[in-house]
Every structure is written in C-alpha cells, then in structure tokens.
Design a protein that fits this description.
- By secondary structure, the chain is of the alpha/beta class.
- Among the domains are: 155 residues, Alpha-Beta Barrel (nicotinate phosphoribosyltransferase); 131 residues, Aldolase class I (TIM Barrel), CATH 3.20.20.
- The chain has 19 helices and 11 strands.
- The chain has a 6-stranded parallel β-sheet with strand order 5-4-9-8-7-6. A 5-stranded antiparallel β-sheet has the order 2-3-1-10-11.
- Strand 10 and strand 11 form a beta hairpin.
- Helix 8 runs parallel beside helix 17 and helix 11 packs across helix 12.
- The longest helix is centred in the middle third of the chain and has 20 residues.
- It is globular, with a radius of gyration of 21 Å.
Length: 420
C-alpha cells in the first residue's frame, strides 16, 4: 500500500530554507575540494529509525520523487539569498569564486523508491552540493507524512493545531520562569510543516525575545532579523575520515578541527564531541584548543553524564573554574522544555549552558514522532561511520563500526532509542 497523493503539495520554494550550518559547512567543503584539487563524492541515505511506522505506507513514492527532483531540485539560490550569505560572512571579500559556485549550484538527482513498506532514498554528488539535500528530504517527508496521517485517522487540522498551540504555550510559560535560560530553534528538519515552524518562530520571538538567541533555518532567521544559529555536523568528521583514511582516525579528526579553525577561527568554534565517542574527543582535545574554542555541543548520550565529563576534562587539562564558566555547553539531543530546565538548573552555575531545541518546538502537536535522518554513509566508495555517545545512534557498516571502535578505544555503554 502506498500513501495518498497530496494535492497542491509544495514544501518549500527556496533553497535557503535550510539550516545555516549547511552554508558554513558548504564553504568548508568547497575550500577542502579546492585544496585537494578534486571533487569529494559523497553518498547520502535516508534512514527511518522509527520502524513501527513504515513510511512507504503513508507517502506516495512517485509524488515524493517528483517533488524532490522536479520541484526542489530545480531551484537555485536567488540574488537576494546570495546577498544574505554575503551579509553573514562577507564571502564576496573572502572568496568571490565561492559566490559564483553558489549561484550556479544545481542539486544532484535523488533516487526514491519503495523497498517493501520502507522508503529507499539516496543521492550522490560533490560534497558541497549533495549536502544540501539532507534537510530538504527530511522536511518534505515529514510534511507529506503528517498530511496523510491526519487523513488516515480522520484528524482535523484545526484540532491538531489547537493542541500544538496549547503545548507550545505551556512550554513557553515554563521557560519564561527561567529568564537566564537561552536557546536556539533547531527544528526545521522534522517540522510538522513550514507554516507551523513560521508560526512557532513568530510566537517565540514575540514572547521570549531575550531567551531565543537564534533560529537555524536561514530563511526564517533572515525574515525575522534574528541570529542564524549553527556551526557544523557529524558528516564533516565522517568525510574527513575517508579523505585521510590512510592516516588514521586521530589524524583525520584533528585535521577536521584544525581546518575548521583555519577557515572560521573563534567565530564558529563550537565542537561536536560525540562522533567517535566523547571520551575519544576530550582525550585528544589539547589544552590550547580548550582555551581557544568557545565550547561544545552535546548531541547524544546522557547530558547529566556528558556535561560533567566535559567539565572534568577541562579541569584535568588545566582550565580554571572561571575559564570553564565562560565555555558554552549546548545540549541538542531530544531537548524538551522540561529537560532544558533540569539541565539548566543543574549546570548553569558551572558552565554557560545554552540549548538547541528542535522538533519539540516544530513538531509537538500530539502526533507520532518519527526519528528519521539523512546521513553521509559513503565517500569516494569508502564506508563512513558515526559512533556517538548512544549506541542506538551508531551508523555505518557493522564491521567498519567494530574496526573503528577498536581504533578509538570506544567503550560507551549508554543506549537509548532516539525520540526524534
């Protein structure tokens, strides 16, 4: 059984409807390709981690393929969007050739088919281009799914939105009791709909102007004149491990950090710690890096274990308590309003805790949550691996996962099924 066709469906009309970290990683990937003198071909695959909801039963595969390739895939960055990119990072001064590249960029074809009751989706292309499909595939699937789910279960849109507004109001009222608690809205990828994310952002800006410090989606950040929040993602270290596979994981890991610093300096120096397990990261993060990088994002594992782990390593390698209090700790894994308050109350006296709150803002309407991702799983024919601080979030070929666990001395035991 395949899902129904959604009449007049158009999830976005802008390539800039995407997280700002894609722009920043795109420039870094383009920079690396130029440095190497060749394209880095990366394959991205869609993965549905919520096996209880077989998506091909709820989404019309032919319409999804058409929407991705013949609607979104035909878009280009508009002049006003390129102007915004320049305003963010002065690319016209930093590298005019990059702006020419962005103006001419064409997304590669996305292969979409049903494999039984599941979706089989993948795309391959040069890294700075193919990476732009991740968000677009995810929010297109998400919106199509919820439209059909409501039809299948005779749920009226007005009732669903009313429940979402009730939940959002309760969350805002809770967070307003802690005016020092600050966060960015990170929820575009698994949003209920683009219209709902826009309504949510307007509500957050109106009611919590001093607590909302940014929005990850560039289109909304620009439209509302707020900070575009986001730095980098796991795929960066994963691709580096393939590009420099002959030098080993540690070399590739440090090379990724060093190149990011060379490109962006302190401006975007928020480290993602869990690619090969946070113990590996902190063990190899030097005192100089600890002093110069602004902080870290905690994207898997238990924050009540991972934040103390980070503080312990900061102390062990020589930072004093004042220096640690100035560092950013940014939990972003399945954060709810209640969870944010618990973390904030526990750790804010010790370190500068801020949050990336995603699907809780953009898809908390009483409907089923789907944990779905699009990840880089192959580069130039080499398999890629992500371990994380949650064994349930490990990605890649099982044999390759085990090989890399041995190489990095991985011993994390925490396991929890992802919510989003």
């Amino acid at each position: 059984m395949s899902g129904m066709i959604v009449s007049g469906f158009k999830p976005t009309t802008s390539l800039m409807d995407d997280d700002v970290y894609k722009l920043r990683m795109c420039f870094a990937a383009w920079w690396l390709q130029n440095k190497l003198g060749r394209d880095i071909l990366v394959t991205y695959r869609f993965i549905n981690r919520t096996r209880s909801i077989p998506l091909a039963r709820h989404i019309n595969v032919d319409q999804l393929r058409d929407c991705l390739n013949n609607q979104i895939g035909q878009l280009h960055f508009r002049p006003d969007e390129l102007t915004y990119f320049n305003r963010l990072h002065h690319f016209d001064q930093r590298s005019p050739e990059f702006m020419e590249f962005m103006a001419q960029m064409k997304l590669p074809y996305v292969n979409v088919e049903a494999r039984g009751d599941e979706l089989n989706i993948h795309t391959t292309g040069p890294w700075p281009v193919s990476m732009w499909w991740e968000m677009k595939i995810l929010y297109t699937i998400s919106e199509m799914f919820y439209i059909n789910w409501m039809k299948e279960h005779n749920l009226g849109l007005a009732d669903v939105l009313a429940e979402g507004r009730k939940r959002r109001t309760e969350a805002i009222e809770l967070l307003q009791r802690f005016p020092g608690l600050r966060y960015s809205e990170f929820g575009a990828r698994r949003r209920f709909s683009k219209a709902w994310e826009r309504e949510t952002d307007e509500d957050l800006i109106k009611k919590m102007p001093n607590q909302l410090i940014g929005i990850s989606d560039m289109e909304f950040a620009r439209d509302y004149g707020v900070n575009a929040s986001g730095t980098n993602a796991h795929e960066r270290g994963m691709v580096y491990s393939s590009v420099y596979h002959d030098r080993g994981i540690l070399y590739a890991h440090q090379k990724s950090l060093d190149d990011w610093w060379e490109i962006w300096g302190p401006e975007l120096s928020i480290a993602l710690t869990d690619l090969y397990g946070s113990e590996f990261f902190w063990r190899n993060f030097t005192l100089e890096q600890m002093k110069t990088w602004h902080g870290f994002r905690q994207d898997s594992g238990d924050p009540f274990i991972e934040i103390p782990r980070a503080i312990w390593w900061y102390i062990r390698k020589g930072l004093n308590l004042k220096e640690i209090r100035e560092k950013f700790a940014i939990p972003s894994d399945g954060i709810t309003a209640t969870k944010a308050v618990e973390i904030y109350q526990c750790f804010s006296p010790m370190i500068n805790v801020q949050f990336g709150i995603g699907s809780f803002w953009t898809n908390n309407l009483g409907l089923p949550n789907i944990s779905m991702i699009v990840k880089a799983l192959e580069t130039d024919g080499c398999p890629l691996v992500k371990l994380s601080d949650n064994q349930a979030k490990a990605l890649g070929d099982p044999a390759e996962i085990e090989r890399i666990k041995q190489e990095v001395d991985y011993d994390e035991q925490f396991t929890e099924q992802p919510i989003y």
